[in-house]
Amino acid sequence: MSADSSVSAPGNDRAQTAVVGVALLLGITVLAVGGLTATAGSIVEDGSASAAATRVGDDFETALGPAPGDRETTVELATGTIQVVNRTVWLLDDEGVVWAGHAGAIVYADGGQRVTGFAGAVVQSDDRGSRVVAPSRVAPANGTLYVGVPVLNASGADGVSTGGHRLAMTLRTDARTERVDLPASSYRIGIETPTPAAWERHLQARGATTSRRDIDGDGTPSVVASFEGERTAYLVVHDVRLAVEVGR
After folding, report:
1. CA-based nearest residue to 73, from 82, 123, 208
2. What sections of 7-163 are H helices per DSSP?
3. Which residues are 110's β-sheet partners?
4. Cα–Cα distance list, 204 to 112, 201, 210, 236 (Å)
5. Which residues pair with 159 in a beta bridge?
6. What is the per-residue pLDDT across 177-203, written as a single tens digit (0 to 9) for each?
7. Dist CA 201 CA 204 (whole Å)
8. Is the model's pTM score more than 0.85?
9. Other C-beta atoms within 10 Å of 71: how many?
């Protein structure tokens, strides 16, 4: 009996299946490589933005450090913005406000990355949250409380944007220090910040009990840190004359 022409030989079926299988495999591989390329590009971009934020944080720490005298720090930017914003630090006791300083904060922002230099600390924020990457100068010890606060007296531009072009921004600081010795009392420190959780962790690690209040009613919360017992307080105010300039 002759073979039915509509039925393929077993060898032909295997060959056709192999060809289809190879084509599917190649298609899947192309899709996978395409996805990998997109992911790698995203990782490189995120890594670059994170590295830039870390570098700017280091520059802020240097510019706003406690060393007296003149200092000049150049911040190199490829993208993003830097601006000076209003922020306040309070020293309080049981009777109310002992001292208040419109300390000001310098803020770098680039997409989801944000770096803030304020109240002696540097806070870095991204999609993982916010954290203090350079500590404040709040130090309780042996019945004393040391509070060091840089107060920014900024001149020049309120803000600088790269506009997608590389630029250098110079932070010139002339820090003058004034120390005030305060008698023993139950002191609290109020830190005005849009990232209260980072400050709470930082101050709790230094032995404080924290709460949140909008002290001046402007909509930005403050972390209020209380330290156990009465303490002698040493308030050291660093008057930082900050000139924000584009270029070296």
Report:
1. 82
2. 10-63
3. 113
4. 26, 5, 7, 21
5. 83
6. 899 999 999 999 999 999 999 999 999
7. 5
8. no
9. 16
